[in-house]
């Protein structure tokens, strides 16, 4: 078997299937073990106990798929046209949803494409044994992508590429073929620390280290309990995830738009009015987020996040009335956040965070793509 030719074919087939880049590496992640264990020991994973439970397995891909000797790593752009960063962030009456979650859930789409890639390889090499992954098992996707030459680790911990920025999803095929490997690319963050200084909650505690417990994406998506009060004023109108560290990154001026229709923003989720979202009952929430990654947080956490956003909006009698109306039927956790929001609304003491002003100005000046 000519594995060099097969590797070239795999990359061509991958791009034909809609992946913007395909790289190949071995499955040795032993150099990541110490860093991962230190991060876990410091409790920076927060309530994501599954990360500690599968900690050692995350650095041993060959145990996830016995016989695997290579990882075929792929990336797929997700930045939608008319992303509307500035429009949403600067209007506290709108809800900001991380751009990756505006369309359909990417897991199924990418997994299907990876399965098709595996089948294509198998048609050329019958002895292939493969397994696709899209954030679907305890596997360290970013280190594999970096080893496969798809980009370097940015100081915000995301994978960066000089020609595409960071607005892309990652996935991989573990295979049993000794394919030739790609080389890592040079790290090009240099002395830039924009992502560290812009983070509203200062979750990037040092270059390349993220304390998830402080991250707005963790607080609005992974956390299932009350959001610590000290972080609530810093969340602004971000109701699902946060993109600030990507928005301020100079490399994202080169970001490429997605060509996938599935990633196009849903009308109900693109710059939505907070008051309209608040009117959804649980049945409406489930219906309107069907096929969306947002659905996984559940209705209670959705209401919790909206309540925090209301607490960060200017005083509005309609908001106060809406919060008071929903209070009796809400869960104790949501009631706690409603009480906080009502106190803020009635005090009229809400201020726009300086980081938001800086971020919006950068976007409006064209430093970042506000497609």
UniProtKB/TrEMBL annotation:
Residue ranges occupied by any 4Fe-4S ferredoxin-type domain in the UniProt entry: 179-209
Entry annotation: catalytic residues: 135 (proton donor)
Chain positions recorded as [4Fe-4S] cluster 2 binding sites: 199, 215, 242, 245
Keywords, comma-separated and alphabetical: 4Fe-4S, Cobalamin, Cobalt, Cytoplasm, Iron, Iron-sulfur, Metal-binding, Oxidoreductase, Queuosine biosynthesis, tRNA processing
Subunit structure: Monomer.
Role this protein plays: Catalyzes the conversion of epoxyqueuosine (oQ) to queuosine (Q), which is a hypermodified base found in the wobble positions of tRNA(Asp), tRNA(Asn), tRNA(His) and tRNA(Tyr).
Recorded family membership: Belongs to the QueG family.
Protein's name in the database: Epoxyqueuosine reductase
Organism: Pseudidiomarina gelatinasegens
């Amino acid at each position: 078997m000519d594995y060099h030719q097969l590797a070239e074919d795999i990359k061509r087939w991958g791009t034909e299937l809609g992946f913007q880049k395909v790289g190949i590496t071995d499955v040795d992640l032993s150099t990541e073990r110490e860093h991962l264990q230190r991060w876990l020991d410091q409790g920076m994973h927060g309530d994501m106990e599954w990360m500690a439970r599968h900690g050692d397995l995350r650095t041993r891909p060959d145990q996830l798929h016995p016989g695997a000797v290579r990882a075929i790593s792929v990336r797929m752009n997700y930045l939608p046209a008319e992303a509307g960063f500035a429009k949403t962030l600067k209007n506290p009456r709108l809800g900001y949803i991380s751009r990756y979650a505006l369309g359909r859930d990417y897991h199924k789409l990418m997994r299907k494409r990876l399965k098709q890639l595996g089948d294509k390889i198998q048609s050329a090499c019958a002895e292939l044994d493969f397994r696709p992954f899209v954030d679907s098992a305890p596997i360290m996707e970013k280190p594999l992508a970096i080893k496969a030459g798809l980009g370097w680790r940015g100081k915000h911990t995301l994978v960066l590429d000089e020609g595409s920025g960071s607005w892309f999803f990652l996935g991989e095929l573990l295979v049993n073929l000794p394919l030739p490997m790609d080389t890592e690319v040079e790290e090009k963050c240099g002395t830039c620390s924009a992502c560290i200084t812009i983070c509203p909650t200062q979750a990037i505690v040092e270059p390349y280290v993220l304390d998830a417990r402080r991250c707005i994406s963790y607080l609005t998506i992974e956390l299932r309990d009350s959001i610590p009060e000290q972080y609530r004023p810093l969340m602004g109108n971000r109701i699902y995830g946060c993109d600030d560290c990507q928005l301020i990154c100079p490399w994202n001026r080169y970001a490429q738009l997605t060509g996938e229709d599935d990633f196009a923003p849903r009308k109900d989720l693109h710059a939505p009015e907070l008051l309209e979202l608040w009117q959804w009952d649980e049945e409406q929430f489930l219906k309107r987020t069907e096929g969306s990654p947002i659905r996984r947080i559940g209705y209670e956490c959705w209401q919790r996040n909206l309540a925090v956003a209301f607490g960060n909006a200017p005083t509005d009698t309609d908001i106060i009335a809406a919060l008071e109306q929903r209070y009796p039927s809400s869960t104790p956790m949501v009631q706690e956040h409603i009480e906080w929001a009502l106190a803020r609304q009635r005090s009229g003491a809400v201020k726009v965070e300086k980081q938001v002003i800086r971020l919006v100005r950068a976007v409006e000046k064209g430093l970042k793509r506000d497609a």
